[in-house]
């Protein structure tokens, strides 16, 4: 198939440091190419890919001090996509909603994966207006706030099996990886670690919007606790060591997390996850196998007393069974092919031919058919 992957421009593909969406786009793109598909990636010019790269800005916008407004760059990228849309069997967007108005005439050849939260009050009317756009969710829970829309399936994220190697033994510290923000709960992670009497390492980025939260809630607590080490943003190589050597990953979120990529990154290393029961956590973490799901700080502290009973080999096997890039790619290809089948049916109908009912199947992902 000839496939376009359209990535956000905030980070390169793959990102140098933090960037979950762009990392998933990279993994999917490389696997599609490996399987023999003709893929064109629309992304920042500093991206690295075996697909054909269409550079839509020189460098990732978040790390470019001269890029003050991301909208013009994304609009220019979407115009490039629109002009070349007829070249592709499928166009796969990872931009949330910005492209919706321009794809009306070829929407039946597109799929949009929604990577973010969907419970914000401004979104319901927008999605109701564009209820024909083909969408994919990254968890079932992500869909709950949405009005009726055109869901094609739910596709869980996946990682290359060898990118984060299995680590059979831990080094006795807890890990927190992600963003410094209220919904991610870094201050809660510090409280859990302190009450459990365990050292904690925090590897996270601080966005400008969260600077006051860092200054008021996180940094003072960090300075009071000598067992907490703040590392900052880390790259993929550092991530393997950081997660692989941890006794457990703390995931004390306080929001409807649509997926939680860091949880399966930890699982790939064999590191179990202690996660609050929010959002997609029950779909991703196999309670008692790849981690322990808790409701409170008290339960998280108690879970740390039991975490040593989880077999790191079984944690890795849970990852291999459910969250590899091969499985993710297979799920998306099934959706791509369903779009192609629907296209052939529409052409046949317009030309006076009737398609057999049993040739039409619902798009099925790894977890949900709709």
UniProtKB/TrEMBL annotation:
Signal peptide: none
InterPro entries found in the cross-reference section: Glyco_trans_1 (IPR001296), Glyco_trans_4-like_N (IPR028098), Glycosyltransferase_grp1 (IPR050194)
PANTHER family per the UniProt record, alphabetical: SULFOQUINOVOSYL TRANSFERASE SQD2
Official protein name in the record: Glycosyltransferase family 4 protein
Species in which this protein is naturally found: Mesorhizobium opportunistum
Domain Glycosyl transferase family span(s) in chain numbering: 171-306
Boundaries of every Glycosyltransferase subfamily 4-like N-terminal domain copy: 18-119
């Amino acid at each position: 198939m000839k496939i376009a992957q359209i990535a956000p421009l905030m980070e390169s593909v793959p990102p140098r440091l933090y960037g979950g969406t762009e990392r998933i786009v990279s993994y999917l793109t490389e696997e599609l190419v490996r399987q023999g598909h003709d893929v064109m990636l629309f992304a920042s010019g500093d991206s690295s890919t075996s697909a054909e790269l269409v550079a839509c800005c020189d460098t990732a916008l978040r790390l470019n001090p001269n890029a003050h407004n991301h909208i013009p760059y994304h609009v220019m990228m979407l115009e490039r996509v629109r002009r070349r849309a007829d070249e592709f069997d499928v166009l796969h967007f990872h931009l949330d909603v910005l492209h919706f108005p321009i794809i009306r005439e070829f929407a039946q050849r597109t799929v949009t994966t929604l990577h973010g939260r969907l419970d914000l009050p401004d979104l319901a009317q927008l999605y109701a207006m564009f209820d024909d756009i083909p969408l994919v969710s990254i968890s079932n829970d992500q869909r709950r706030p949405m009005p009726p829309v055109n869901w094609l399936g739910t596709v869980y994220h996946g990682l290359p099996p060898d990118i984060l190697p299995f680590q059979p033994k831990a080094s006795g510290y807890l890990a927190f990886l992600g963003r410094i923000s209220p919904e991610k709960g870094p201050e809660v992670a510090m409280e859990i670690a302190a009450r459990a009497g365990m050292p904690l390492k925090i590897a996270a980025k601080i966005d400008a919007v969260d600077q006051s939260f860092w200054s008021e809630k996180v940094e003072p607590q960090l300075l009071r606790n000598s067992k907490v080490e703040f590392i900052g943003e880390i790259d993929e190589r550092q991530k393997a060591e950081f997660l692989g050597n941890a006794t457990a990953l703390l995931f004390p979120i306080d929001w409807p997390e649509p997926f939680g990529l860091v949880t399966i990154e930890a699982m790939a290393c064999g590191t179990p996850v202690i996660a609050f029961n929010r959002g997609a956590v029950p779909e991703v973490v196999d309670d008692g196998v790849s981690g322990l799901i808790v409701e409170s700080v008290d339960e998280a502290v108690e879970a740390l007393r039991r975490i040593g009973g989880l077999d790191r080999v079984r944690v890795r096997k849970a990852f291999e069974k459910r969250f590899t890039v091969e499985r993710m790619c297979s799920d998306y290809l099934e959706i791509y092919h369903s779009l192609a089948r629907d296209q052939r049916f529409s052409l046949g109908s317009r030309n006076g031919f009737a398609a057999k009912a049993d040739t039409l199947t619902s798009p099925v992902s790894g977890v949900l058919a709709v």
